[in-house]
Structure formats: C-alpha cells, structure tokens
Design goal:
The protein is an alpha+beta fold and about 425 residues long. It has helices at about 15-25, 45-55, 80-95, 135-145, 150-160, 170-175, 205-215, 220-230, 235-250, 280, 285-300, 310-325, 330-340, 365, 370-380, 405-410, 415-420, and strands at about 1-5, 25-35, 65-75, 100-105, 115-120, 180-185, 190-195, 195-205, 250-255, 265-270, 275, 340-345, 350-355, 360, 400. The radius of gyration is 23 Å and the shape is elongated.
C-alpha cells in the first residue's frame, strides 16, 4: 500500500478534483468530518467545503498554501472502499489531523483502489499541524495501522536471503533489493533500509562465510533452462519477466549501462532459493533470439489508448506517483508496477500510461525540465521502457536494472562521491 502527500494549495482545489470525480461517477464520498454545523445542511456544494477550510486556515496567515491533500492506494482490489476509508481515518489521526475538517473520497477509476482525503494544515486554534519528517512519518504510521512491523520484517527477510544459494555478495544484495530494500555498506556492515529508515543490519563476514558454502542445484538449473526454452518464445521481454515472477516465483533482472541494450542478466529463483548468473542458465543472446518474434509482433500493435485532458490534480497525482516510484523502490520499474502505471515510447516521445483508464499523457508536458531529467535518468539505469502502444520504436528491453561497475566502486568512495544509490550502482 502506498501513501502519497500531494501538492499544497491556497484555494483547496483538491476539493474540486475529488467532487468532480463524484459527479463523473468515478468517485464516492465516504466521509465528511469536523465541519461543524455545515454537516447538518443538505445538498452541500464544493464551494461550501472550500469556504469552511479557508475560514479555518485564515487563522494563520503565515501558511500560504494550507491544503493537505493525500492519496492512499492499495494494490489492485486488495482493499475495498470501506477498508480504505477506515485506514485513512486512522492514518489522519496518527498524523495529527483527526480533529481537522476533512473529506474522504474513494476513487474507482484505476486498476488500484485508492482514496483521497483533503483537509487543512491549520488547526482551529490557528496552529500549523506538525509537518516535520512528514513523508517518513506518513509511511511509518501507515505501516503501524496495517500491522507491519518494519524491523521484524527486515530481520526475517535478511535471514531468509541468507538461506539462498548465491556466489557473490552483489547477488545476495539483489535478493533484498528485489523486495524493496536499499543497502549501504560501511565498516564491514550492511545497513538494510526501507521506508527511509535503517531497519536492520548484516555483518559482511556472515555473507562471506555463506559464499564458501553455496552450491547450486544442478537439477534446478536444468529446470530453469527448460522453463526459458518453453516460455521465452511466448512472451516479449517484459511479459516474460512478469510471467516468471507471477507464476514461478522467479525474478529476471537485466543489466545495462547508459540505457543501452542489456549485456547480462541475473535470475533470482525465490521458489528454489537461489540466485544465478543468467548466462549459467541460458546465454543472453539465445534468450533474446527466443523472444525476438514476440517482440516484433507486439511492436506492430495498434494503440487502443487515447490522450485525455488531465485535471490539474490528476496531474499532481501522477507526478507524485512517479516521484514515489523513484524514491520508495529499488528501481522505478518496481514502483510503477505497484501503482499500475507504465512508461511507453512512441514516435520518439515518452508517455505515462494508465492502462486501466486506457489513457496516456506525454511526460514532457506532465513534468518540468528537472523532473523530466530525473525520470529519464532513472529509466536509463533501470531500462524500463516499453513500446506496446506505438509502431515506431527504438528497442530497449523492459526489465532492466542499473549499470554495472566494479565492486570497489560499488562499496567504496567512488559511489559515495557520485552519490549513487545502492541500486543504481550495478
């Protein structure tokens, strides 16, 4: 589940955005709290809610944009509108907004059920609600509500990763990174990071001892080879990775440099509890040869998508989802998959696509120059570019992780100097 704080505003346009959803049959008003006598009136207009929020906010002139607009998104239909509403109310309480006037609106127009809530950062006593470390607290409080023990989970995941068979330290780190962790090494110790906090650690000596004992299961390696021969001709690169992960518990991570065609790949076999260098199972050239026909066939598809006119706060939502995908996951590909969004290249232009809505928007019109550069840099390292909706292409396979450099650069001063995140250093 993802929580994202959207743009602030002086005019409380978030109310309009959400009530428009209701009027268009794409949203449902789930809760109206702490609006005083206003709640006793019938047939309230968006302006009524906005005026009340502005009235409360006017008690503190120092805050120019008091709107607090948040989206909480579930994966698929894993939570219904009532469950999401209850979670949102508990979350607002945990963030200090329980007594604030707020609206909660359920959105049902994407592949992932989600709610929006709009309130003000100013209390009725004229004080600004605490915003220190707001983004980190947002995630931490949501996890508490969901019963997620971050440190305990990290310890369990690290222990499970150590039970895998792997032949390099980098392969061990990939196991945890594929589950959303970031790892940094200092003084022979690996810090395990998630949700912006160090959740645990592993002594590198333990990993090195494990390396001495790791032996690959030859029969399992033959099974993996057979699976690739069977299914690679049926899927393009992205489809193959998605199919293997969903149906077989196998993650395919392709390695590329500077956005170029991959030069290698890694297989994380969660079902068999092992990590393999892809070439040990099947040479990369052979793998591309097997799914080349499927790639070519998919690239000829006509686009069923349309380019809609996006409301301002829908733009804000998609911009926020892009930022969350870059900041909260090992790579942008995994982050976008969690939100049901994709990036496509068509006619030499990149688009953000919401498949559930069969709509797309040009990235260069959605983002400013700096944001666009950041997203393109993230994709250059992850290689996550698809071409399904266009017929003119520059081929870049989809499931790709970061460029590869030597171990000293990964673990030493070179990475710190360049400020590369751990997942963008291979």
């Amino acid at each position: 589940m993802i929580v994202k704080i959207l743009s602030s505003s002086a005019s409380f346009d978030g109310v309009d955005y959400n009530t428009d959803k209701i009027d268009n049959g794409k949203g449902e008003l789930m809760a109206v709290k702490n609006f005083g006598a206003l709640q006793g009136l019938m047939n309230l207009r968006p302006e009524d809610y906005k005026n009340y929020l502005k009235m409360v906010s006017a008690t503190n002139k120092a805050v120019k944009k008091p709107q607090f607009h948040v989206a909480i998104s579930a994966e698929g239909r894993s939570y219904d509108k009532h469950q999401l509403t209850e979670i949102a109310m508990k979350w607002l309480e945990s963030m200090g907004y329980g007594d604030q006037p707020y609206l909660i609106v359920f959105h049902k127009d994407t592949a992932n059920n989600h709610i929006h809530t709009v309130t003000t950062r100013i209390s009725k006593q004229g004080k600004k609600i605490d915003h220190n470390y707001e983004k980190n607290r947002a995630v931490q409080n949501l996890n508490k509500i969901l019963g997620i023990d971050e440190k305990h989970n990290a310890q369990q995941d690290a222990a499970k990763a150590l039970s895998y068979s792997f032949t390099t330290k980098a392969q061990f780190m990939m196991i945890l990174e594929s589950q959303g962790y970031k790892l940094t090494e200092k003084d022979g110790h690996l810090n395990v990071i998630k949700f912006g906090k160090v959740q645990g650690g592993i002594n590198v000596t333990v990993i090195e001892e494990k390396l001495k004992k790791s032996i690959h299961d030859q029969s399992r390696m033959k099974q993996l080879t057979a699976l690739l021969y069977k299914y690679a001709p049926r899927h393009d690169t992205a489809g193959l990775a998605e199919y293997f992960k969903k149906e077989h518990g196998i993650v395919l991570l392709f390695h590329a440099k500077d956005g170029k065609k991959p030069y290698g790949y890694t297989i994380i076999d969660h079902a068999g509890k092992a990590v393999y260098k892809g070439g040990e199972i099947m040479p990369l050239a052979k793998l591309f040869e097997l799914n080349a026909g499927t790639e070519a066939k998919n690239h000829k598809m006509e686009t069923p998508y349309r380019e809609p006119i996006f409301e301002p706060f829908r733009r804000d939502y998609y911009r926020a989802m892009l930022k969350a995908a870059m900041e909260n996951y090992p790579d942008i590909r995994q982050g976008l998959q969690q939100t049901g969004l994709y990036i496509f290249l068509r006619d030499d232009r990149y688009y953000l696509v919401d498949k559930a809505d069969k709509a797309f928007i040009p990235l260069d019109s959605l983002l400013d120059t700096t944001e666009y550069g950041q997203v393109m840099q993230a994709f250059a390292s992850s290689g996550e570019v698809s071409h399904e909706i266009g017929r003119q292409h520059v081929y870049v396979p989809a499931p790709v992780i970061a460029p590869s450099i030597d171990d000293e650069a990964i673990n030493g001063r070179n990475r710190r100097r360049k400020k590369h995140p751990r997942t963008n250093s291979r």
